[in-house]
Amino acid sequence: MRVLVTGGTGFVGGHLVQALRRQGDDVTALVRSPDKAAPLAALGATLLPGDLHTINASALEGVDTVYHLAGLTAARSQAEFQRINVDGTTNLLQAASTAGVGRFVFVSSLAAAGPVPVGTPRSLDDPTRPVTDYGRSKAAAESVVRGGAVPWVIVRPPAVYGPSDVELLKVFKIARLGTVPIFGDGSQSLSLVFGPDLAEALIAVGSPTAPTGQIYYPAHAEVVASGDLVRVIGTAMGKTIRLMPLPRWLARGILAMTETGARLAGQATLLNRDKLHEFYAAAWTCDPTPLSRDTGWQAGHDLAAGVELTLTWYRNKGWL
């Protein structure tokens, strides 16, 4: 198949391009920086310089499937989220429609759906209730995709981790000390997915034989408490972990400082007060059963195996 991938230089996008090339697909990657995308070219991907606002239909002629992963997870304003996550998706979708692309796979986020009560994983029938500007922007982009003329599939991953991820790396680094600060009391329920497994899920829904007009949640079958996630990381590192719970009032102050520092530096940060709504929700869990039923996909790794592989990768790369 001929496919186009946006966000290929990112964590999940990199795993997707690797998986697509392994199965012999003809991959074009839309990239803002060809130098940064050199590893994709080394895999055999064709680099298309540009961005979500400059791409046009001519670049998508003959493409069977678009995998749209590019977007902002942190922004300096809601308008910035709108420009990239919503307006950028709109332009890409219009180009895909004009070019006659057969399938549009949009990688959204569980944040677009919102948190749930403990013990009730989010399912396809639940109304969306995003609680952050990021989540609202992804939900708005989903509406654009659902209203477009290209057959679509939307994937809402939960927290993603694995080789080359820089977010969970921070937890690994802190875990070396044995004491790990954690938002709340460590009881938040989480669904997670290993990066390479998520790539395989995207390929499964991008197949010409997979259903369209569907929203899926790719995740490990297991649900884990946030404190237990840290303990699993500690066990892999040979450390006994002591959690240091952060009450909401203290976290609010810490996040206000990191937000202010980022603003003064003209940068965006994930650690801002808006994220309190995510950090202190009871549960971020979802049901992967419909995805398995419709495509046969199942996560190839449980949490312990995924953490071990991630740790090995970090150590081999000198990140730990």
Note the total helix count.
Answer: 12
Could you state the order of secondary-structure elements as H and E?
Answer: EHEHEEHEHHEEHEEEHEEHEHHEHH
Structure classification: alpha/beta
- Give the % helix: 40-55%
> Numbering strands along the chain, what is their spatial order in the largest sheet?
3-2-1-4-5-6-11
Q: Measured on Cα atoms, how large is the radius of gyration?
A: 19 Å
What's the average pLDDT? 96
**Count of beta strands:** 14
In words, what does this structure look like?
- By secondary structure, this protein is α/β, with parallel strands linked by helices.
- It has helices spanning about 10-20, 40, 80-100, 110-115, 135-145, 165-175, 195-205, 225-235, 250-265, 275-280, 290-295, 305-315; strands at about 1-5, 25-30, 45-50, 65-70, 105, 150-155, 160, 180-185, 190, 190-195, 215, 225, 240-245, 285.
- It has a seven-stranded parallel β-sheet, sandwiched between helices. Strands 12-9-14 form a three-stranded mixed β-sheet.
- The model has no long low-confidence stretch (mean pLDDT about 95).
